Amino acid sequence: MQTAQAPTDRGNEIASTVVATMVQMGVIGLPRNYEIFYEALTGSNPALSLEVIALGNRPTQEQLDEIGRKFFAQNHEQGIVEQAREIIARELEGVATLLRSERNYIERYGKVLDETSSGLNSRTVMSQELLQKIVGVMSVATASTIDHGKQVASTLGDKSAELETVKSKLEEYKKLADTDPLTHVWNRRAFDKRISKIYNDNRGVLFSALILADIDRFKEINDRHGHPAGDQILRIIADIFQSSVHQDIFVARTGGEEFALIVEGTTEEATFEIADRIRMLVAQTSLKDVQPGCGQVTISMGVCMAADADSADDLYAKADRALYRSKLIGRNRVTRYSTIAERQGKNWLLYKKD
Questions:
Q1: How far apart are CA 131 and CA 313, in angstroms?
Q2: pLDDT, tens digit, for every residue of 148-177?
Q3: What gap in Å lies between CA 236 and CA 316, rounded to an integer?
């Protein structure tokens, strides 16, 4: 029993060490990151271990993905796509071969039918023995064609399952590419694609809105409590966004401490109420479990209706202007772009959010 238990204990010890090391270095707990650190800490790949050591503390996800592409190309970005492309090409060629084979079988079966029909038409009287031979030939040809068809159907089913697996992997990869790894909401790439669709039709323009939110004094939080605490706060606020709105509301982290929500089929008043409810929920959330003395954080928000902007870029700029206004007049509030007096002529770009 002790002999059998030793490898398990060793495996658990390595796994714990990997997780602890990743946490200490501020590495996001993604499977592809775990793979890198597992190989590095077990020493099975000295070159990989040296590159991980050279990263130092708090490596970026881009640095880790570069190592991943180098040592585990089959599991990273282009490697996934290339691998899927090869599998699809191979499976499609196999399907084409099967279909050609089935066509040949059907053509031969058709030829047997034609020859039999011609023989029957050319004879006025046939013996019992001849009829039995004809029935025997037709029976064998039919059975053979049916059996081959069943084999083709079974093989096509297997290939379909293989292609479905590839499809699922590609969809998972696509989702990862559009997901913020820290908060698990949509990222800036997904946001840019979604906001551009608003102006594709009149309904999108008339009944859509953008909410931008920014954590107040987030730099001070990071400086005082450390980046791990800041990351945890980002995750908590992202969870509040997702849990407090309907599933059809698009939630994204657009960069740093900024989040964006795209609301469709709504009015300005309803959008304002959504934003203000989220603002209050964040302000009421205690963060003492994240870091002693952290207390509460607040967010400032800006709202703009799509109808008040000429394009996706204009919509973002105007919602951002409303957000800046919330910062300027005291933070922890929601400002509608429609209430901002343009004639004041303030240079909003000179203001730096914090």
A1: 81
A2: 667 766 766 666 666 676 566 556 666 667
A3: 24
